[in-house]
Specification:
The chain has helices spanning about 10-25, 30, 35-45. Helix 1 (about 10-25) packs across helix 3. The chain is mostly helical and about 50 residues long. It contains three helices and no strands. The termini are far apart. The radius of gyration is 10 Å and the shape is globular.
Length: about 50
């Protein structure tokens, strides 16, 4: 959260957006299309996709 390009608040928002995606059955890519904080986080760090 603290390393988000737009700061801690945006990092917290990105975390919540990722949790929302999971609870709504969306992929991170789908959610990131409408969640700029999540999109920026994924651009910076990418993500691990479990098999």
């Amino acid at each position: 959260m603290h390393g988000h390009p737009k700061g801690t608040r945006a990092g917290a928002m990105a975390t919540m957006q990722a949790i929302e995606a999971w609870s709504e059955g969306e992929t991170l890519e789908e959610k990131a299309k409408k969640a700029p904080e999540l999109r920026e986080a994924l651009e910076k760090w990418g993500y691990y996709k479990p098999k």
